[in-house]
Structure formats: structure tokens, C-alpha cells
Amino acid sequence: MGSGPAEQEDHARRATARLDAEGVRTIALTWVDNAGIVRVKTVPTPRLAQVVHSGVGMSPIFDVYTSDDIVAASAHLGGPDGDLRLFPDLDRLTVLAAQPGWAWAPVDRYDQLGTPHPACQRQFARRMADRAAAEGLEMRMGFETEWVVVRDPAAVAPGGFAGAGGVGGPAWPDGTGGAAVPGSSEVLHYPCAGPAYGMTRVVELSDYLRDVAEALAVQGIEVLQLHPEYSPGQFEISTAPADPVRAADDLVLVRETIRAVSQRHGLRACFAPTAVAGQVGNGCHLHLSLRREGRSLHRDPDARWGLAPDAVRFLGGILDSLPALLAVGAPSPASYLRLVPSQWAGAYRCWGVENREAALRLVTGSPADPEGGNAEIKCFDAAANPYLLIGTVIAAGLHGITSGGQLPPPVTGDPGALGVRERARRGITRLPVSLTEAADHLEGAAPLLEALGEVLYGAVMAVRRAEAAQFAESDPEEITAAFRWRY
Ligand code: GLU
Ligand code: MG
């Protein structure tokens, strides 16, 4: 909650006046559950000052909800009892460009006495960022968002397009151009036909993509790049690095904005790890960079790859923990359909300099840029709770610093193309191939368990085990269909 209650209420009153003037009637207060679902309570704008004072009630049970709303009880959380208070972060209060009359703010969760909820993922992330700061490390993070866009059948009325305000172009010619999804009755109609990374796709969807970029700009999100990706209908947006909690907030805002703009164009955005089983999926890569006393630890003139010793240890800690981190960063049964070799998803535990097949890619950037250089963790996807993810990644990195983490020699080329024996010789292992395997690794990862704490860890694990069990017998098409529109 940061500043004191009086300042908060004053801040809320000023914010209410501004929102009123902008015609904002309702505020969406979001947090992300352990299954990766953005959960919400909304309040009328005039209630904001009261909400900042006493919060908004919400049951703690959602901490053990699976992504399809089944309750998976843990030792600490589960039943119908209890209430938490949601407190919006007014520093992130944002008028939503693609939802007229709406604003948004992320929340922190407390109990009724004002004690932080031990399973509040956002406060966990902040605690870990504070731990890094206490070690003198300044961290910057940023997520990439990939999504597949298709025409929304619900937006097409017989005889024409029924999207909001008639924007977004003509209806698709019925019965043509749709791609039947193998093993499912669903037909995906892509609104663009151009090739991967092709300008054709940008021309085909120029109004839509402009509106995505415009909405984000108006909301104060700095876009670094927006481009067509590999799979049909797939795009990617990357945003400017920020402090870790802000980066996680930004990811939520970016995704919900893309969803809203898509809908206004009669389109539907799929962020799930796989839109179509067997095709290249949607990643949600995490970039991070480290500084100490204002100097980049990726630009050490005396060090190999420019990596200062603490950066090596930090990245070594992350590389070491990747199998366990997958239970946080690739938390869905669908994640393991995406995480396959030779699709730039980072299916092998190894690192490489600008190697897009390595789970950990060192991005050197232009040597002329003193600020440049970061590391990209590629094996994560958008089913992840971004707050849990940044918190556990920081915990793994800090453990690397205290335990003398190391980086083995970097890998060049596709590790999937090496023979089994060569991979074994170089210590390159395949990352977990199932949610169960990843959850088993998390169970054995003491530094991550210590960081998460018993209550949050127990809830995460209950959700992982429940989703793994639910889909244990399902084939890739069934899993893809179940998760396609979930995140
Ligand atoms: N779509 C790929 C993934 O699943 C990533 C492609 C890229 O390197 O941007 O992660
Ligand atoms: Mg990409």
C-alpha cells in the first residue's frame, strides 16, 4: 500500500476527479491466480476512495482455483471461509483506451486486519524485487507477448459484420478461408493470410495493429516492437523494460488491451501456449537485465560475453533452476505441447549467445549501446502468473549469487540437432516434458520453496497437480481445445 492511509485517500480523491472528468464509470481491479487466470472485481468510480481505505472483499479460495474454475484445496487454502481485501495500486490506475468508460488497476491482497495475504503473488514479487535491491542489484524486466488472432464467430451476424461500431473490416466469406482444427469441430478463420514476419500481414491488419499500438501508447505502455510471428495469424509485441513488478503489471495490461482491441475489431486473441496442436505456439519470453550502482552487469569490459561475475552467478542460478521454474513459467498441461525442440521455444536447458533455441538466450545487443545487453528466458508462456514468475526467477538468480552459480560453455546451433551422447557430454538436458515432471522439480527446489513460503507454495502445487491429473489421459488436440481461449 506504500504511503500512509491519509495520503492514499487523498490520492484516491484526486484520481476519482480525473476519472470522472474522463467519463470513467467503473474500475476493474485485477490480480492473477496461481493457474494464470486474471481474476477481477469491479467497482464504480465514486467508490474508489472507500476502496482505498478498506479494500474490496474477495474469497481466498481463488488461490486454489484451476484454470477452469475447479477448486483444488491445499493444506492452507480451500474452503468457503474467510475474506481478503483487495487494495488497488493507484500508481498503476489506467484509463482503458479500448474499453470506454473503464479504468484498471492491479491489486495487492491483505486480510481484514491489514496483514499481507501470504499467497498474494504481487506482494511476493515485490518482496523478491526488494531482496535483489537489498543486495544492491537493480533489475529491469520485460515480457514479450505472442498471440494468434482469428475472426470471432460471435461477432459475425448473418449477412455481415457485427463488431463494435462496425470497425474492423468485412465479414469473412462464409465457408471459405477457415482452417479446421484437427480433432475438433472448431474452425479458425484467420483474418490475414500473409507469411511469417511478412509485411503482407501488417497491410492486411493495419487498422487492427495500429489500434493495438495506439491503445497501449495512450495507456502509457511503451511498445518496442510489433511484428507478425511464425504461425498463421500470430503476432508479437514487446514492451519497454521496467522494474520487475511493473513489468508484470504491464503484461496484464498489454494482454487485456490486445483482447479488448481484438474484440472491437470482431477478432479473438488466443494467448494460450498452443492455438493449434502441432504448430509453433505462443511464448511469453522474459527479458531481464542487471545493474549495480548504475552500471550494467552485461557490459563489463573485462569479462567474457561482457557478463560481470554477479551476472554470471545470477544467470547460472536461473539456468540451474529452470526445470523447477517451469512449474511456474509453463504451468499448463498445454505448455508442454508448445515446449518442443526446434521451434524457438527453448526446450533444452542450456544457454547461448543470441541462440534462439537455448532456453536462456544472452542478448548482447549493439556493443555501442552502454545500456544494452539482457538475458531472455524463452521457455515460459502466457499461462504463467507473471508475478509468481518474476518472484521465483529473482529467487533463483539470488540463490545463484549466494551459492556461486556458474554458466557452462555456451551452446551454438540447435541443441536438438546434436546427438544424445553429445548433449549428455555437454550437460545439455531436455527440460521437463510434462507438467507433472516440472511440478516434481519444483517440489525439490528448496530456494524456491523458501522464497514462496508454505502457503503460496502449497496453493501453487495444489493447482499444478489438479490440472496435471485432469488432463493426464488427454491427447494434444483435446488439451489444445480445452486451453485455447482460457488465458
Ligand atoms: N513462438 C515461439 C515460442 O513459442 C517463439 C518465437 C520467438 O523466438 O520469438 O516461444
Ligand atoms: Mg516471438
Describe this structure in words.
The chain has 487 residues and is α+β, with helices and mostly antiparallel strands. The protein folds into 2 domains: 5-117, Ubiquitin-like (UB roll), CATH 3.10.20; 130-483, Glutamine synthetase/guanido kinase, catalytic domain (Creatine Kinase, Chain A, domain 2). 34% of the residues lie in helices and 21% in strands. The chain has helices spanning 5-21, 48-54, 121-134, 199-204, 206-218, 244-264, 309-329, 335-338, 386-403, 420-425, 435-443, 446-452, 454-470, 476-483, and strands at 26-32, 38-44, 56-58, 84-88, 94-95, 102-110, 137-151, 156-157, 160-161, 178-180, 187-189, 223-228, 234-239, 267-270, 286-292, 295-296, 348-353, 358-363, 374-377, 429-430. Strands 7, 12, 13, 14, 15, 16, 17, 18, 19 and 20 form a 10-stranded mixed β-sheet that branches. Strands 1, 2, 3, 4, 5 and 6 form a 6-stranded mixed β-sheet that branches. α3 runs parallel beside α9 (386-403), α7 runs antiparallel to α9 and α9 crosses α12. Bound molecules: glutamic acid and magnesium ion. Magnesium ion binds at residues 144, 146, 229, 236.
Brief overview, please?
Helices cover 34% and strands 21% of the residues. The protein is an alpha+beta fold and 487 residues long.
